[in-house]
Automatic annotation (TrEMBL):
GO terms for cellular component: cytosol. Residues 1-43 are annotated as: Disordered. The lineage of its organism: Bacteria, Pseudomonadati, Pseudomonadota, Alphaproteobacteria, Hyphomicrobiales. It comes from Rhizobium loti (Mesorhizobium loti). One of its GO terms (molecular function) is catalase activity. It catalyses: 2 H2O2 = O2 + 2 H2O. Residues 4-15 have a biased composition (Basic and acidic residues). It is an enzyme of class 1 (oxidoreductase). Its cofactor is heme. Belongs to the catalase family. HPII subfamily. This is Catalase. GO terms for biological process: hydrogen peroxide catabolic process; response to oxidative stress. Heme binds at R72, R112, F161, R358, Y362, R369. The chain holds residues 13 to 546 of 702 of the full protein. Decomposes hydrogen peroxide into water and oxygen; serves to protect cells from the toxic effects of hydrogen peroxide.
Length: 534
C-alpha cells in the first residue's frame, strides 16, 4: 500500500477528517449509501444526545458487535496458505480419482496448520499436536486430507473425543490451565486410557514442538481406500514429507520463543512465502492389500497404530507447494471448513471407528461455527469445478436452483442428473455382526508401538521424552495419577519408567499396568524398528 499523504482537515471539535478526492473512493454504508462524516455521530446540539436515527452509526456499531464467530472447538489457532498440488505420474492402476490420472497436473490447494488444544490467542510453540489440513480443489470436487503432524492418535473410537478434549483443555471451574501446561485432568484421563500410550510417546517427544510449520511432516492417520475404475480396492495411508526435512526446538527454547514471540510459526510462514521461499511437501502413499493388512499383529483400522515405513516403504506421488498467503485471514483461514468426508470418487473410507465418527463431526460443527448450512457458498469452501444440485434456501443463500426444477426425477429437461459412471461409489465391503457397543480384540495391544517409537529415538531424544514426562507429571498434584502413568511406562521401557519415577521422587515403583496382551518379547528384534526417522 502507498502512504496516503493528504493533509487532513480539522473539524469544529478539532477532530481530523480525510475526505475523498481524485481516485480515492467515497466511504459508503453496507447498503452503498455515501457517508459525509465518519468522525461524529448525529447529535442534538454539539454536546447533546446521539439520535437513534443515525443509521450510519447504528450499522457500523451493529456490524462490529457481530464480528466474532465461535472459534473452532479444537484446532482453534491456525494459519493457512494457498498453493497447488502437482501429480507426478498416473495412479490409474490404483484409483480412478481424477487428480491422479495425469502426470504434471496441477490442482489448487489450501492448507491450514494448527495447534489442537490452545484457544485462538494461544502461543505457537505449545507442546501439542499440529493439525495439517489440506483442501485440494479437484475437478471432481473438494478433497480434504484432514491430518496431523503425528501419524497416530490418542483414542480408538470417536465416542471418546469429547472426553479427550475436555480433559486437555481448560478445567470447567477454573478455566485454566491452558494448552501447554500439564494438569491433573489431562493425565488422569490419559492414565485411564492406555490406548493413548503410543500417541503420548510422540507428544512427549520433540515432534510436538516443531521449529517451523515448514519443517513438519503430515499424516492422514487413518487407513483409507483407493478404488480403481473396476472398483478394486487398495488400502492407503497418506503422508506429507517436508522438502526442508524435519526440525524441532528444545523445550527451553520453545518457552523462551513463546514469551518473546507467540506468533513465531505464523510469522515464519508469512515471511518465507513473501520472500519467495515456497515451502514444499511430497505426498507419499503407503499402499497395501487385505493379505498384507492381515499379516500384522495390529489392526490397520486402529488409529493408534502406524505401519512402519521400513516395513512398507511409501511411494511419492506428487508435491504440494505453498506460494501465496491469503488476502484476508478471516475470510480464508478462519472460515475454511475441512472435513474428512470430502473425498473424490476413487478414494473411500475404511471402518476405522475414529474416522467414521469424524465423518459425522466436521459437517455438524461447521454448520454451528459458520452459522449456516450454506457455508459452502463462502468462496474458500466452494468447489472450483462445476457443481449442480437442488439444495436451496437457508441462511445466507448465495445460490439457488436456476429455473423451474428443484427436484428430480423430473419431466422438465432441466437440472442436473446422477451419473453411475462418474459419481462416487463406495467399496462394496460385506459387513455382518451383532449390533453392540464393541471394540475389536485386535485393538488391544497398547504398548508395542509405543515401545518401538521410544527405542527408535536416539539417546538425546529419549532424554527429551523423559524430561517432558517428568515436567508434565511434576505439575500433577494427585500422586495416584503420577503412579498410574509410570505403571504404563513400565510396559513401554523400564529405563524410561525408572528415570521418570526417580525424577518425580516416587517412593516405590508401581506395578506395571495390566496389559490386555503380552507386552514383552512379543516382537521379533527386526521389528523393533527405527520408525519414521528418515
Ligand atoms: C478440527 C485433525 C480427530 C473433531 C480438526 C483440524 C484438524 C483435525 C487438522 C483443524 C482443521 C482446520 O484447520 O480447520 C484431526 C485428526 C484426528 C482428529 C488427525 C484423528 C486422527 C477428531 C475426532 C473428532 C474431531 C475423533 C470428533 C469425533 C474435530 C472438530 C474440529 C476438528 C469438531 C473443528 C472443525 C472446525 O470447526 O472447522 N481436526 N482430528 N477430530 N476436529 Fe479433528
Amino acid at each position: 500500500a502507498t502512504i496516503h499523504d493528504q493533509k487532513p482537515q480539522r473539524g469544529e471539535g478539532g477532530e481530523l477528517h480525510q475526505t475523498a478526492s481524485g481516485s480515492t473512493p467515497v466511504l459508503t454504508t453496507a447498503q452503498g449509501g455515501p457517508v459525509s462524516d465518519d468522525q461524529n455521530s448525529l447529535k442534538i446540539g454539539a454536546r447533546g444526545p446521539t439520535v437513534l436515527e443515525d443509521f450510519h452509526f447504528r450499522e457500523k456499531i451493529f456490524h462490529f458487535d457481530h464480528e466474532r464467530i465461535p472459534e473452532r472447538v479444537v484446532h482453534a489457532r491456525g494459519y493457512g496458505a494457498h498453493g497447488y498440488f502437482e501429480t507426478y505420474e498416473s495412479l490409474a492402476k490404483y484409483t480412478r480419482a481424477d487428480i491422479f490420472q495425469r502426470a504434471g497436473e496441477k490442482t489448487p490447494a489450501f492448507v491450514r496448520f494448527s495447534t489442537v488444544a490452545g484457544n485462538k490467542g494461544s502461543a505457537d510453540l505449545a507442546r501439542d499436536v499440529r493439525g495439517f489440513a489440506v483442501k485440494l480443489y479437484t475437478r471432481e470436487g473438494n478433497w480434504d486430507i484432514v491430518g496431523n503432524n503425528i501419524p497416530v492418535f490418542f483414542i480408538q473410537d470417536a465416542i471418546k473425543f469429547p472426553d479427550l478434549i475436555h480433559a486437555a483443555k481448560a478445567e470447567p471451574n477454573s478455566d485454566f490451565p491452558q494448552a501447554q501446561t500439564a494438569h491433573d485432568n489431562f493425565w488422569d484421563f490419559i492414565s485411564l486410557t492406555p490406548e493413548s500410550m503410543h500417541m503420548i510417546m510422540w507428544v512427549m517427544s520433540d515432534r510436538a514442538i516443531p521449529r517451523s510449520l515448514r519443517f513438519m511432516e503430515g499424516f492422514g492417520v487413518h487407513t483409507f481406500r483407493l478404488l480403481n475404475a473396476k472398483d478394486e480396492s487398495t488400502f492407503v495411508k497418506f503422508l506429507w514429507k517436508p522438502k526442508l526435512g524435519l526440525q524441532s526446538v528444545a523445550w527451553n527454547e520453545a518457552v523462551k520463543i513463546n514469551g518473546a514471540d507467540p506468533d513465531f510459526h505464523r510469522r515464519d510462514l508469512w515471511d518465507a512465502i513473501h520472500a519467495g521461499n515456497f515451502p514444499e511437501w511430497e505426498l507419499q502413499l503407503q499402499l497395501f492389500d487385505q493379505a498384507f493388512a492381515d499379516s500384522f499383529d495390529f489392526d490397520i483400522l486402529d488409529p493408534t497404530k502406524l505401519i512402519p515405513e521400513e516395513v512398507l516403504p511409501p511411494i511419492a506421488v506428487g508435491r504440494l507447494v505453498l506460494d501465496r498467503m491469503p488476502d484476508n485471514f478471516f475470510a480464508e483461514t478462519e472460515q475454511v471448513a475441512f472435513m474428512t468426508q470430502n473425498v473424490p470418487p476413487g478414494v473411500d473410507f475404511s471402518n476405522d471407528p475414529l474416522l467414521q465418527g469424524r465423518n459425522f463431526s466436521y459437517l455438524d460443527t461447521q454448520i454451528k461455527r459458520l452459522g449456516s448450512t450454506n457455508f459452502t457458498h463462502i468462496p474458500i469452501n466452494a468447489p472450483k469445478c462445476p457443481f449442480h444440485n437442488f439444495q436451496q434456501d437457508g441462511h445466507m443463500a448465495m445460490r439457488n436452483p436456476v429455473g423451474r426444477a428443484n427436484y428430480q426425477p423430473n419431466s422438465w429437461d432441466e437440472g442436473p442428473r446422477e451419473s453411475p459412471q462418474k459419481g462416487f461409489r463406495s467399496f462394496a465391503e460385506v459387513e455382518a455382526g451383532p449390533k453392540a457397543r464393541l471394540r475389536s480384540e485386535t485393538f488391544a495391544d497398547h504398548y508395542s508401538q509405543a515401545r518401538q517409537f521410544y527405542i527408535s529415538q536416539d539417546p538425546v531424544e529419549q532424554g527429551h521424552i523423559a524430561a517432558a514426562l517428568t515436567f508434565e507429571l511434576s505439575k500433577v498434584q494427585t500422586p495416584v495419577i503420577r503412579e498410574r502413568v509410570v505403571s504404563h511406562l513400565l510396559n513401554i521401557d523400564d529405563g524410561l519408567a525408572g528415570k521418570v519415577a526417580d525424577a518425580l521422587g516416587l517412593k516405590a515403583m508401581p506395578k506395571p499396568a495390566d496389559a490386555a496382551v503380552p507386552t514383552r518379547g512379543d516382537l521379533p528384534a527386526s521389528d523393533a524398528l527405527s520408525i519414521l526417522k528418515n
